[in-house]
Structures are given as C-alpha cells and as structure tokens.
Amino acid sequence: MPSISSSTTLQAQLLDELSRWELAGRSRALHLPAGLDFTTNDYLGLSNHPTIVESARRALLQWGAGSPASRLLRGHLEIHDRAEKAMAEWLDAQAALLFPSGWQANQAALTALASSEDIVFSDELNHASLIDGCRLTKAVTRIFSHNDPSDLRSLLTKAGPARRRFIVVESAYSMEGDRAPLETFAELAHEFDAYLIVDEAHAIGVYGSSGSGGCQDIDFGDRLAARIVTGGKALGVCGGFVAGSRPLIDLLLHRGRSFVFTTATSPATAAALTAAIRLARAGDERRSRLFERTQQLRHLLAAAHLKILGSGPIIPVLLGSETRALEVASAISRLGFDVRAIRPPTVPPGTSRIRIVCHADHTPESIETLGRAVIEACRGESPSSGASLQGLPPLPRILTVAGTDTEIGKTVVSALLVRAAQKAGQPVRYLKPIQTGTDLDTETVCRLAEIDSAHSPKPIVELPLPASIDQAARSANTRVEVESVARQTTNLIQKVPEALWILECAGGLLVPINESEDQSHLLLSLQTPVILVARSGLGTLNHSFLSIEALQHRGLDLRALILVGDAHPGNVHSLQTRFPDLPILELPRWPEVSPQALDRWLTDHPLEFLLP
Ligand code: PMP
User: Fold this and answer.
1) pLDDT tens, residue by residue, 287-336
2) Domains contained in the chain, CATH given
3) Cα–Cα distance between 487 and 526 in angstroms, integer?
4) How many angstroms does the Cα of residue 386 sit away from the middle of ligand 1?
5) Is 265 touching ligand 1 by the criterion CB < 6 Å?
6) Which atom of ligand 1 is nearest to the CA of 126?
7) Is pLDDT of 581 > 90?
8) Active-site residue flag, 202
C-alpha cells in the first residue's frame, strides 16, 4: 500500500513549520460549533429556514446529489438558470453567473476583466480572495488605505497609462464592520476613467432596498463593472455569483477559469439559493429586527466605553493583543456564547479583536446577556454574575397536533392534551394558528378541557371558506405566509413562556398554505414536536405511513400516533411492527364528547408522558 508521507524529510519540514505557528501562538484547529451563534454571517437567520431546506431536499430528489461535470460540459441544469435569473432580477443586473463559492466568483471576475495591460487599485483590507484574484490578473496592483478616497485619488493621479483601470473594494468589510464610501468611489471612477469591481459578500441581504446590497441605490453610470455576491452569508447557503452586464457574463464563460474548469454547483445548493433569494428579498421584517438587535448591542457596548468598530451587524471589539482577544473569547464562550477571536494574519498585528455578529433571530434577552458578558470579560472580570445563558427565558414548550386528514378528531385530541397538562399541574394554552371554515375549534377545546377562553387566544389567521388554507386564502383575496404566522405564534407564546402550548394544525399535515409552503413548514419554523392523529378503520395504514414518512423526512419529532375510531388491533400491529418505538394509542369516537368523557378516558390512558 503506498504511504502518503513517504518522505520523512518532508514530514519533518512540515512539522517544523507547524511548530513555528505554534510558537507564535497562532495554532489553528477545527472545532465543532458549540454555544449560541454570534459568529457566523447568517445575518438574517436563514441558514435553517425550512423553506430553504425543503427546496434543497426537493432538488436532491429531482436532480440527484450532483451533476458531475463543468457547467459547459453537461453539468448545467435548469435550476442553475433559475438561481441566476433570481439573482440578476434582485440586483437589477442584466445577468448573473453562479459559482460553487464566492472565492471562485471573485477570481473569475477579476481575471476575466483585468490582465497585465491594466492597473488595479485595491483597498488594503480587501478579502484574501480579492487579493489573490488581483495577483492572478498580473495587472499592476496599487493598494490604497482602507476606505480612503483621498489616498485612492492620489494613486489614480500618479498612475501611468493602462488599457483599463479597476477600483476593487468590498461594500461592507467583514473584519471592520464598516462600509465603503461607494458614492465617492463612483465619482473617482468617472473622473479617472476607472471601473469599480465591488464584492458585496457582507452587504447582500443586509443593505439596500429589499436587501439588494450596498451598490443598489447608487448611480454608478457605466462605471460598475461587476458585483460579486456570496451565498454563504445572509443567504445562509453557500456559493457565489458574479452579476453585471450580459457581455461580462458571456466573457466569464470563456475566460473565467474558476468557472470553466470546476464542477457545477450542486443542484441542492442552487435550489436552496433560489429559495433564499426570494426570502431575503422579501425579508424587510428580518432586516429591521437585525438592525434593532445591532443597535441594542452597539449601544450597550459603547455605553461601557468598549472600543467597537464599524456600524453594522458585525461588531468588532478591539482588544489589541492576541492573548487578550483569545482570553476574552474563551471567557464568553464558557457562558455558552460562540464568539471568536480574530488575530493576525487575518487582521494587522496589534489589532486583535473579538468579532460579534448579530442575527435577526437573536432575542433581545440573548443580546442583553451577551453584552453584559462581553463587558465583564473585557474589563478582566470573570463574567459569571448572572451573565450566562441560564439568565435567558426558558425555551418555549410547544406540542402540535397534526392529522393525516381533516375531520378526524384533532380537536378532541388537543382538548385531551390540554386536560392532561392541567391534571399534571402545568400551565397550558391552546392555539389554532390557522382556522379555515366557520367551525370554532378554539371554543370547542375551551368547553371540553374546561379552560378559560383567556387561555386560548383566537387563531392568527381566520378564513371563512371550509377548504385548504391556500384555497381559503385565495377566496378571501389574501395570501398566508409561514414566516408571518410563525412569528405571530412565537410572539403569543413569548407572552406566556412558562406555559405548555398545545397547537392544532388546520386539516392534514401537508395542506398547502400558499403555492410553495405547507403546514409542515410552519411546524419546522416553530421547531415543534408533533402528535399525529389518524382514523382507525380500513385505509388508514397508507395515510399513516405516508404522513410518518413525511414527518421523518423533514426531521420533525413525532411523539405519538393516535388512531381515532373503532379499535382495530390489526392496524396497530402493522404500524407498531414498522415503528416499534412510536407510542400508538387508540381513541374511540364518543357519541357525545364531554369533559367527563375526556376525564374518564384519561384515567385509563394518562398522556403526561407525551408532554414536552
Ligand atoms: N469575499 C468576502 C468579502 C468574504 O468575506 C468571503 C468569505 N469570507 C468571500 C469573498 C469568499 O466567499 P466564499 O466563502 O463563498 O468562498
């Protein structure tokens, strides 16, 4: 068997080099994620969004795991086109081209546009992918001081003749948290006959109208040569795009070596990106939450006189020495927060820092707690005085009743669960987030479980037509969206966080909510465990198997199956054989449902073990 490290001399050299990194205190290693995420660039909190995950899953089933060839050699699929069109439309560009990573997109844009006959003016704090891209162009490269138009002007003035001049910048900087003065750079580009290449990695989804980036609302005239967008930040996926004129995109097919000679982006990634673009574009509410949290944390840290940089959701706290940055990061992480130290060579020596990234889905309480921990750690105090995740409100306790069909007894099962919680002495609330038709399930549950109507808020969405949610919404000239229902549900839950919340779906599990979302998306958004209700008689096996499979595929936590109707031991046996660990209960259909009937049944069938 061939040995990989056949040369002991080479191994010794590698170990020697590694020991030099270690001696300089700059060893690196990979760590699995731990703690509440204040590190990733998931600004809008989309990386686990059920619609995005579901789009990727469907693409896997439709197109397979990959299309293992370059896009130019049969690797190109319709889903790539869709992602590119969605991006071009969002950025109001003639065209866009998808790459497996933002790094490759930067390489391609730079090398297709610039060559040895050109001059490139590059911000001193540009990302490594831009620096390496500039090197690959073989163009003369001049570095100007970070975000400094007067330094750029002086370099442009002194520059010799060239075929083309390019100014290469990022619209928002990931280690500084600040933004480029793009309008002034655009004026300089006009004045000195130069073109801008703008990396929008940390601006897309965050800045500009509909989150379309830092360049969007600026008049560049014809001076904007290319915009590069990454999919691995606010979009929560991975990959990258170059967006620009049609000729630029066509030229990339010829000269973008990191496009031409690489395997096509996976269909799942392209589909996830297409869904993420749609959500980010419509994500004004997420953006305003992101900026509320950002302001909250910035105020807190500034009031404590910490040296914070920039203005956006990336909040670098400057600490100077590498040791101090490491100490502060590890003190904070001991409390359950994931905040990382940033050290040379990523940032200049003497400017080591911790880098905190706010997300739209951080709660005000977690921001407050993190802020206190950072302040104490930066002051050299051991941040233990209450500044820990233990101080945060408890996670909501939710249990949702879903069905294989409509009219099968979900409401009675909900009432039984509410009653069981009451018997166990737990505060409990009932909510049917979406109600179609004029049946008043909320009233029925209040009556059967004998709870005060104040303990069961009205549905968030009420649609009079007794039909699927999408059809009932269309007939009421409206559209229901999972994100909005999930947010309003969470708001209600947060008002009584100590209670167990029993939620009930409207109709069957996969009933569509709109043209692309169904009730399983709502359950995923709420991260709720599920009780599945099915009918007991003939024909239930297929419905039950299909629904259980759908729940399992989506990663939803199925707590129990309840079969409503006449007892059918054969069905229970078949289901139990297939799902030996799943609790399966049978519930008769009573001629008259009453609180007493519920109580009698509960005496023989305690349900407390199902409650979260
Ligand atoms: N540009 C900037 C400014 C970045 O921060 C990054 C990633 N950190 C990239 C480009 C590269 O993107 P990707 O991770 O998709 O390769």
Assistant:
1) 999 999 999 999 999 988 999 999 999 999 999 888 899 999 999 999 89
2) 50-281 (3.40.640.10), 285-389 (3.90.1150.10), 397-610 (3.40.50.300)
3) 9
4) 36
5) no
6) 3
7) no
8) yes
